[in-house]
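Here is the promised in-class demo. Please do not try to memorize the tokens; focus on the logic of going from shape to residues.
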């Protein structure tokens, strides 16, 4: 897990082999399946990770709450 300096987001981790993204937010920890390495890279390098997460991941992929 890598720390994110973003409103509402604490950290994110990615399993490239299984294409799973785990995002820790202030409201819980969520897992997303079938995330491309490119999408993860774009999240981590975005000038606004919170906006990128909301627009490109949270609204496009189904989350599974893990915590």
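The designed amino acids, position by position:
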């Amino acid at each position: 897990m890598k720390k994110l300096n973003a409103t509402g987001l604490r950290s994110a981790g990615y399993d490239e082999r299984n294409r799973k993204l785990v995002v820790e937010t202030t409201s819980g920890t969520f897992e997303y399946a079938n995330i491309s390495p490119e999408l993860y890279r774009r999240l981590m390098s975005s000038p606004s990770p919170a906006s990128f997460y909301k627009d490109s991941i949270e609204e496009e992929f189904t989350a599974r709450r893990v915590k």
